[in-house]
Amino acid sequence: MFLLNQKNRSTSVLIALVLAAGSAALSFQATQTDARTVLPTPITTFVTTLVPRTQFITIDPITLPDETVAAKTITLDIPECSPTIAPDSNGYVPPGNCNAQYNYYPSFAAALVATIFFGVVTFVHIAEGIKYKKGFYWVIIMGSIWEFGSYATRTISTRYQQNSGLALISQILILLAPIFINAYAYTILGRMVHFYLPSFSILGVRLYNLTLWFVFADIACFVVQLIGGAQATNNSPRDQALRGIRIYMAGISLQESFIIVFVGFAAAFHIRLLKAEKTGQFETTGKKDWRRLLYTIYMSLLLITIRIIFRLIEFAGGNDDSNPLPRREIYFYLFDAIPMFLAILIMAITPPSLTLVGPDSVIPKAMWRQRWAMRKQEKVRALKSSGDRSGFELLRSS
Prior knowledge:
single chain, mainly alpha, Rhopdopsin 7-helix transmembrane proteins, 2 domains, two-stranded antiparallel ribbon, two-stranded antiparallel sheet
């Protein structure tokens, strides 16, 4: 537990990781052209074709009271991809060929470095969760594990590029992991509202409703992006892949719209804290150190926004030669891997448990029970006024 007991050294190590990440990215960019020149050249075997495969589907006879429908056989000519290139030792074939998982030759070294960095920061979050014993840490831990798992799978996939399962798992984890990091920012702000504001509300919205709204919004974004990401693979039929890309773009656009709304609430909360600070409200409570944690939320959401904008531009530009974003691996690391690593890193450097200390740092379960009880009482009053005794008795027994 060295990282837990030596806070300053932990921060220094994490900052060193940022510098190392930047250095690795620059060196990776500088060596892209040279690295491609020494890669083994795939061997052309025959001309690309789509070979029709005949499939026979037999429908069993159906017996009705008045007549019997005889069995029917349907013949379908389904075009299947015919291999045109012999894969190299890592399974690579050029884009557009059968089983081509990537639009470029993926770098094993870059994927391995990303795996190590995400692995270290994941360990830090797990250690902080154990040290501070806060249940909400599972959100950022899950996001970190998904990022780590995505690059670990990608590292293996660079050596087994004919394995579509590895590429699919890596892609889905990379596309969905930011949802958890986004949700963690929502969670932290909710606890800050409970900690700093006696009214437990922002812009007239109670803490309970605020948290519930953004949690459901995040779940909706997760489902939409999962559906789109699962369909938008290189080996999917063209129509299915395009549909998956559109669904995923809709999902991240929805995510960004919720981020913008959330930042509006965060800004209103920020203004409330500035006013409270000017009136000396925090002098008696001692709750002064709020800026660092709130700025961490802003920065993490900015990094997620950079990543979303990159994905929107990448997918909107199409997948042909005129769009360099999906065909150069360096863009993926610069605008997806590094922003998400930095977002997770700054949350590790500034854990909320260093700011939210004391009994007010925990939202009591009684608060949620009280909210449900109030809603139940409102329904009881509504049923009483309507004269629906059956519904009233059912509600009382629940």
